[in-house]
């Protein structure tokens, strides 16, 4: 069948399938062709969903809890979400200030779709989760990427925020701990950003707290609405069970925010998915109301792997790796390898060519270009200990073959 008659909508003109997905798919295809590949691309915990959560889903299925639910989430799940926000973050939300959706991604999509007019700007600190850029664009907005320096811990500074704000700014995206950097905002960082925000009442904030539970070394989680309750009338606090409870496939995310914004997001949701999966919601109730030991065990494993990754990468000539405070990613700097030559005399011109070169050694990482800040690469350590050890040794081997001006 020929599809020459097909014409995509203009709104898709700047949007492509995420390079993260296409690179991971390429590495999987190489593996299928018989190449031994270690793939460090995963954006999801490698742990299984805890049994008490699966059991709750089975009970829901057996009880016939298999119909549409209330548009913005079942009353039982909304109660569990309200209790979670109060318990963990000291935030009070009434039922009509909460929405549950098909993943945090749909929450973000609802929010952008409900608020952006053509040309409205959204400030996205880089390195960023790639989808922020595409969701803003597909909704007609203009993503304004602001580069955050490693020397500032990959965090947005108040000065950079002030400079990025224009009369068209609608939103600032904050994500802590962050994907891909693993960097976490402390109370004083959020307080400093707030003093800029208080001078610009037209700027609203999305606090994407999806990695809240994955923090190491006793670092305290902080979210903007708790730090500055007086700004809560323009903050959407976003969270979900995907990362905290190893539930990426169940597709449940949620948010709390101003009633008027939530009502507008509900309109969008009513015309897209109607409601999130009833089974996923029943599972999420068990996740939010249940024991936190499985989370603690998972985080303890991630912390050990984080230390291994940082030690290995930081020890490679030409690489440097800041110690992330959370999530399950390392963001390694490779500036010293840009301009290096391979044994076949080809040039490493940027982090994409470095990632391509690592593929030849059987290891897949995601170049920093995908996250708006180069030259870096992201390594996800949501994988087995043996894959981690083998993949790290392949990176060490690959980098040792490169000739730089210093070697
Ligand atoms: N926010 C960030 C920063 C993420 O990294 C991801 C997933 O990778 C999401 C949101 C989406 O999470 P969900 O699976 O709940 O849609």
Please provide a brief summary of the model.
The protein has 407 residues and is α/β, with parallel strands linked by helices. Helices cover 38% and strands 14% of the residues. Strand 3 (121-126), helix 5 (131-138) and strand 4 (142-147) form a beta-alpha-beta unit.
Could you characterize what this model shows?
The chain has a seven-stranded mixed β-sheet, with helices on both faces. The model has no long low-confidence stretch (mean pLDDT 96). Strand 5, helix 7 (187-197) and strand 6 form a beta-alpha-beta unit. Helices cover 38% and strands 14% of the residues. The chain is α/β, with parallel strands linked by helices and 407 residues long. The chain has two domains: 10-48 and 294-400, Aspartate Aminotransferase, domain 1 (Alpha-Beta Complex), CATH 3.90.1150; 65-289, Aspartate Aminotransferase, domain 2 (3-Layer(aba) Sandwich), CATH 3.40.640.10. Helix 6 runs parallel beside helix 7 and helix 11 packs parallel to helix 13. The longest helix is centred in the last third of the chain and has 22 residues, at 293-314. Residues 43, 103-105, 129, 175, 179, 208, 210, 240, 242, 248, 253 line the site of pyridoxal-5'-phosphate.
């Amino acid at each position: 069948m020929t599809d020459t008659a097909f014409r995509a909508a203009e709104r898709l003109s700047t949007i492509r399938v995420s390079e993260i997905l296409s690179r991971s798919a390429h590495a999987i295809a190489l593996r299928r062709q018989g190449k031994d590949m270690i793939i460090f691309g995963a954006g999801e915990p490698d742990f299984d969903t805890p049994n008490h959560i699966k059991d709750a889903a089975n009970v829901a299925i057996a009880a016939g809890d298999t119909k549409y639910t209330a548009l913005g989430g079942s009353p039982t799940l909304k109660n569990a979400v309200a209790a979670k926000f109060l318990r963990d973050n000291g935030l009070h939300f009434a039922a009509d200030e909460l929405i549950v959706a098909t993943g945090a991604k749909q929450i973000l999509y609802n929010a952008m779709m409900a608020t952006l007019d053509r040309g409205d700007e959204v400030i996205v600190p880089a390195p960023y989760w790639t989808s922020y850029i595409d969701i803003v664009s597909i909704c007609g907005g203009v993503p304004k990427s602001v580069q955050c320096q490693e020397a500032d811990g990959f965090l947005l500074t108040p000065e950079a925020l002030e400079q990025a704000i224009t009369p068209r700014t609608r939103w600032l995206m904050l994500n802590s701990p962050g994907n891909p950097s693993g960097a976490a905002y402390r109370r004083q960082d959020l307080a400093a950003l707030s003093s800029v925000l208080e001078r610009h009442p037209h700027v609203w904030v999305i606090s994407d707290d999806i990695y809240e539970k994955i923090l190491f070394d006793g670092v305290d989680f902080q979210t903007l609405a708790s730090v500055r309750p007086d700004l809560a009338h323009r903050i959407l606090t976003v969270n979900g069970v995907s990362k905290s409870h190893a539930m990426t496939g169940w597709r449940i995310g949620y948010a709390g925010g101003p009633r008027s914004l939530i009502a507008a997001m509900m309109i969008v949701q009513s015309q897209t998915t109607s409601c999130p999966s009833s089974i996923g919601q029943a599972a999420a109730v068990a996740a939010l109301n249940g024991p936190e030991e499985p989370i603690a065990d998972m985080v303890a494993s991630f912390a050990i792997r984080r230390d291994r990754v940082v030690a290995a990468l930081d020890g490679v000539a030409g690489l440097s790796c800041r110690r992330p405070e959370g999530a399950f990613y390392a963001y390694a700097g490779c500036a010293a390898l840009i301009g290096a030559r391979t044994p076949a005399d080809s040039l490493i011109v940027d982090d994409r060519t470095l990632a391509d070169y690592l593929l030849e050694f059987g290891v897949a990482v995601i170049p920093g270009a995908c996250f708006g800040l180069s030259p870096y690469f992201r390594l996800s350590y949501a994988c087995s200990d043996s894959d981690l050890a083998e993949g790290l040794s392949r990176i060490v081997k690959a980098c040792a073959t490169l000739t730089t001006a210093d070697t």
